[in-house]
Design brief:
329 residues, alpha/beta
Length: 329
């Protein structure tokens, strides 16, 4: 903790002198009462007498808090300049209706989001962004170091934001377009989908060639089991889905081609554990060294002192003019 204007703290040196002057003046104002025996005063002092002796101390404490607040205490966080291994990563997540298939508990999309959030937590130095795609694609979150913001965007992903379909090529192309101006020597796209490309103006192979030309590696992950599974078959007017048993098959050829063309890798996830293992493997990717500059963040604390001083002053006035009030005649 530090103070933005510490010279105000010099006023605290005046407090002992002010207290001395106040006590001396108070003593001169008191009337001396002479009695013949000390026992004559027995029982005169009550809790009110003792409590009143602390009232002025409370006021001095309030004054000390105000002086300290004027010095503007601050909490500082530093990030020293250092070299770290990091890269720019775009997560590209499929949000087509088939991602609600229940072969993963509770569904594929929920598991994909949970594992993605865990991956984000384990990459403290990377800049990571998020692209969502279905029948089209859009950048949900640009490259950022703000982990809390990015996790919030991942959590908020929902099926139905785009038209139905699986535009894998559009998802990759959107991510590559976002990475093309990145200064990082390490640029990666991680694509998670459970379907085959069936729409979009740009095909997966064309998008992979764009990635290759720009030096962007694409890691593709096919998620889901083959066979009969509970999958959305029809959408209600309220946006919910009706599920039915459907035969699901996954053609990994196109995803493998995308990974090969862009010098990435293709993975197949048949269970949540498989997906976690895949992310753990991707976490061991070659990283590029970057220099992280020192960042200083300040949090002002003076308003807490002002709040405390105000509450104590109100309490002191309430006691002084309430239960501890002195009536002079």
């Amino acid at each position: 903790m530090t103070f933005a204007e510490p010279y105000w703290l010099l006023l605290l040196l005046l407090l002992p002198w002010l207290i001395f002057r106040y006590r001396r003046a108070a003593t001169q104002r008191h009337v001396t009462l002479q009695v013949s025996r000390q026992t004559a005063m027995k029982g005169v002092k009550t809790w009110v007498v003792y409590a009143r002796s602390w009232l002025q101390a409370l006021r001095w404490f309030v004054l000390a808090l105000l002086i300290t607040a004027m010095a503007r205490p601050q909490l500082l966080w530093y990030e020293d300049e250092t070299e770290a291994e990091a890269m720019d990563i775009l997560l590209v997540l499929d949000i087509s209706p088939s991602m609600l298939t229940k072969d993963f508990a509770p569904d594929r999309l929920t598991v994909a989001k949970e594992v993605a959030i865990d991956f984000i937590s384990r990459r403290p130095f990377d800049r990571i962004g998020l692209v969502a795609f279905s029948g089209g694609a859009f950048t949900q979150c640009p490259l950022t170091n703000d982990r809390r913001l990015l996790k919030g965007f991942v959590n908020n992903l929902q099926v139905g934001k785009l038209q139905d379909g699986t535009a894998i090529g559009m998802g990759i192309a959107t991510a590559v377009h976002h990475l093309k101006d990145s200064p990082s020597p390490g640029r990666v796209v991680i694509l998670i989908t459970d379907g085959e490309n069936n729409t979009g103006e740009i095909g997966p192979v064309e998008a992979a060639e764009m990635a290759q030309a720009l030096g962007v590696r694409v890691y593709t992950v096919g998620i889901g089991k083959d066979g009969v599974v509970q999958s959305p078959s029809r959408r209600n007017f309220d946006g919910s889905y009706i599920f039915a048993a459907r035969q699901m098959e996954f053609d990994s050829t196109i995803l493998a081609d995308v990974a090969r063309l862009s010098k990435g890798r293709f993975y197949r996830a048949y269970s949540p554990n498989d997906l976690q293992t895949i992310y753990a493997q991707i976490d061991q990717l070659e990283k590029a060294k970057i220099t992280i500059k020192k960042v200083e963040q300040k949090t002002e604390l003076f308003f807490w002192l002002l709040d405390a001083a105000f509450c104590l002053l109100v309490l002191e006035l309430f006691l002084r003019w309430g239960p501890l009030r002195v009536i002079t005649v």
